[in-house]
């Protein structure tokens, strides 16, 4: 199809040139130019695809284009390397931030755990201190009570020893003055013993009355 169009263009232009020559409107030089143009036009149309693939270059420009392409490739390679380096650095920074955040979170949890443990320990120490104070107070009270019991027992033993001695010394001596004095000493000692056993005066008087009522009065 393209060949037919090329042939038609060539024949039309050639016919037009011949017509102009016969009419003597153009000279030989212009005729040659027009015939060459008709031939080139027809050939160009017929070989259109081939002409599209032909590289039309200015003489001496190829080295310049090669240099430009080389610089372009080097620039693209440098940009890619820099981009890759920046991406790697950014990825490393992100990992560092993640690691730091994780370490910070773990440190925060550890601090909270330590604070809770310290609080529990402090509470436990306070409880132990309170118990120690209570035990110390109880021990002091017990010590005081034991001292009081010891003193009371010692006094009671001394009083009983005194009573026994007085009874032994006055045995078999009824009705004399010495017996009366010993009897009074015995009563005073008994009163002292009762006072140690019963600190309340009312309860002590009640006990003494009950004891006196055990023995009937002399007739």
Automatic annotation (TrEMBL):
The keyword Transmembrane applies. It comes from Desulforhabdus amnigena. The chain crosses the membrane at residues 5-22, 28-46. This is Uncharacterized protein. Keywords: Coiled coil, Membrane, Transmembrane, Transmembrane helix. Residues 87-145 form a coiled coil.
């Amino acid at each position: 199809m393209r060949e037919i169009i090329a042939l038609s263009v060539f024949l039309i232009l050639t016919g037009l040139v011949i017509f102009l020559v016969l009419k003597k409107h153009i000279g030989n030089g212009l005729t040659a130019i027009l015939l060459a143009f008709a031939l080139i036009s027809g050939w160009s149309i017929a070989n259109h695809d081939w002409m599209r693939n032909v590289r039309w270059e200015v003489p001496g420009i190829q080295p310049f284009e090669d240099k430009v392409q080389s610089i372009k490739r080097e620039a693209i390679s440098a940009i890619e390397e820099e981009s890759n380096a920046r991406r790697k650095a950014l990825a490393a920074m992100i990992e560092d931030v993640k690691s730091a955040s994780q370490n910070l979170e773990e440190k925060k949890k550890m601090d909270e755990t330590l604070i809770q443990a310290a609080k529990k320990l402090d509470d436990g120490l306070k409880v132990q201190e309170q118990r120690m104070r209570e035990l110390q107070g109880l021990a002091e009270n017990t010590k005081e009570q034991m001292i009081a019991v010891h003193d009371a027992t010692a006094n009671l033993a001394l009083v009983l020893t005194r009573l026994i001695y007085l009874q032994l010394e006055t045995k078999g001596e009824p009705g004399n003055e010495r017996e009366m004095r010993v009897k009074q000493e015995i009563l005073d000692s008994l009163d002292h013993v009762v006072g140690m056993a019963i600190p309340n005066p009312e309860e002590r008087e009640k006990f003494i009355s009950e004891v006196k009522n055990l023995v009937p009065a002399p007739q």
